[in-house]
From TrEMBL:
It comes from Aeribacillus alveayuensis. Residues 116-429 form the Glutamate synthase domain. It comes from the Bacteria. Pfam families: Glu_synthase. This is Glutamate synthase domain-containing protein 2.
């Protein structure tokens, strides 16, 4: 018991010391506050620190910082994770619960979560869950540890990972259950053996947060192992032209699609596009080329880094893009023939299920999944460094990233998303997530109703 008395005495002593410091400091705090308030209330506006508050109401701290970065280097700045702007999203839609007119599903029912990508492909891809990872590139974006964790985590739950505009790592293929390989504009990762290992191939035409603008990665941020794997020479700048050199005319896409289907013996081949006002025409070109799926990136999509003007002022918000894409496929009698994948600003199970109800076959996550992977590991960098230094390839703390911990965090995250979507399906009186459709939704405002063609609640 002596140790307990000693411990309690120590706590009491610490509290008394703290209270004494507060009492002694109180007069100084009071005098300082009085002096500061006097200055604040008497100085002219042009000499008053409150002028900054007034300015920040008109000009946000984010814009002020970004303009300061422009002033510092005189060049294009690159912001990670996508646009902070608030677009119309899925908040204006609500599910209509089953009660008496429609009875809820028995709680013991095994809710089906499977989704098929490329139903008319020779070898369709059947995923265990309808939530997958969007493309994140090794070296160009994230570290090898992150890529392996993504493959491992998605493999545990039967989801799919995506190599992005990097290359396929052997450990990544080993850990992944299903993997999307991208056919992109860069010179690397074009070997036949890479495509032969794919469960699906996504031809990267554009993406939401960077449209189809070119990108360059300087050699100082892409050195070491990634430089060698990507086949770059020492001091060489990695270039992503954003235009696939084989596509000189729209009809050239068909040749690429056919070649990839032959190489892979018929896995689903699709295109990834950012959503613009030419969305239907872009989709038409893809359909004529014989694609099995179309991945659409909305305006809220993320990226490792791209100019704010591209993130904030280009493309269509995700809910606009999805609604238009579904309408186009339905009008062309292609909805059940070509799978539709959508991404851009998905952070909750509710938004994912609403997208599926509107007509998406699968939803891909990026930023939300990356944050889930880092989970408590962010404590290794904050408050003095951002979490990106833990996951990005040139990050200072990338060696401290725990791959296994991240993999299981990602698996838990995806499982939790799926379980919440399943319980919502029960509440709607359905037995499969695929059965959730527009009839289960109601719009809260006229704009959301007009965009989605969902009736309002009034």
């Amino acid at each position: 018991m002596d140790w307990l008395l000693y411990f309690l005495a120590s706590i009491a002593g610490s509290l008394m010391t703290f209270l004494f410091i507060i009492l002694m400091a109180r007069p100084f705090i009071k005098r300082f506050t009085a002096a500061f308030m006097k200055i604040l209330m008497k100085d002219r506006y042009t000499e008053n620190i409150w002028e900054m508050v007034s300015a920040f109401i008109r000009l946000s701290p984010r814009i002020t910082i970004e303009n300061s970065l422009r002033a510092a280097n005189g060049g294009i700045i690159e912001r990670p994770f996508g646009s902070p702007k608030k677009f119309l999203h899925f908040d204006g839609l609500m599910f209509s619960p089953a009660q008496l007119a429609v009875l809820p599903t028995d709680g013991e029912t095994d809710i089906k979560t499977e989704t098929v990508i490329g139903p008319r492909a020779k070898r369709p891809l059947v995923l265990d869950i309808p939530v997958i990872l969007g493309g994140m590139a090794y070296g160009v974006g994230v570290s090898d540890k992150v890529k392996i964790a993504q493959a491992w985590g998605t493999g545990i739950v039967g989801s799919a990972t995506n190599i992005g505009e990097g290359t396929l790592l052997p450990e990544e293929r080993e850990k992944a259950k299903y993997i999307f390989v991208q056919y992109h504009s860069a010179k690397w990762a074009k070997e036949r053996e890479i495509f032969e290992q794919a469960d699906a191939i996504e031809i990267h035409i554009g993406q939401g947060a960077s449209a189809a603008v070119p990108a360059k990665i300087p050699p100082e941020t892409l050195s070491g192992k990634a430089r060698d794997i990507l086949g770059l020479k020492p001091g060489e700048t990695a270039e992503l032209p954003r235009k696939i050199k084989e596509i000189k005319r729209p009809k050239d896409l068909k040749k690429i699609v056919q070649e990839l289907k032959e190489i892979t013996d018929g896995v689903p081949v699709g295109i990834k596009i950012c959503a613009g006002n030419q969305l239907e025409k872009d989709m038409e070109i893809g359909i004529e080329a014989g694609v099995d799926f179309i991945s659409i990136d909305g305006g809220q999509a993320g990226t490792k880094g791209s100019p704010p003007i591209i993130q904030d002022d280009f493309g269509l918000p995700t809910i606009y893009a999805l609604s238009r894409a579904v309408r186009y496929l339905e009008e062309g009698d292609a909805k059940n023939k070509i799978s539709l994948l959508v991404g851009g600003g998905f952070y909750t199970p509710g938004d994912c299920l609403k997208a599926i109800a509107l007509g998406a076959d699968a939803v891909y996550l990026g930023t939300a999944a990356l944050w889930a992977m880092t989970h408590t590991q962010v404590a290794k960098t904050v408050p003095f460094e951002p979490p990106t230094t833990l996951v990005f390839y040139p990050g200072r703390f990338k060696d401290q990233f725990n791959t296994e911990e991240a993999a299981y965090s990602l698996a838990n995250f995806l499982s939790a998303f799926t379980e919440e979507m399943k319980i919502a399906t029960i509440a709607l009186g359905k037995k499969s997530i695929r059965d959730v459709d527009r009839s289960d939704l109601v719009a809260l405002d006229e704009l959301t109703s007009k965009v989605t063609n969902i009736p309002t609640a009034y």
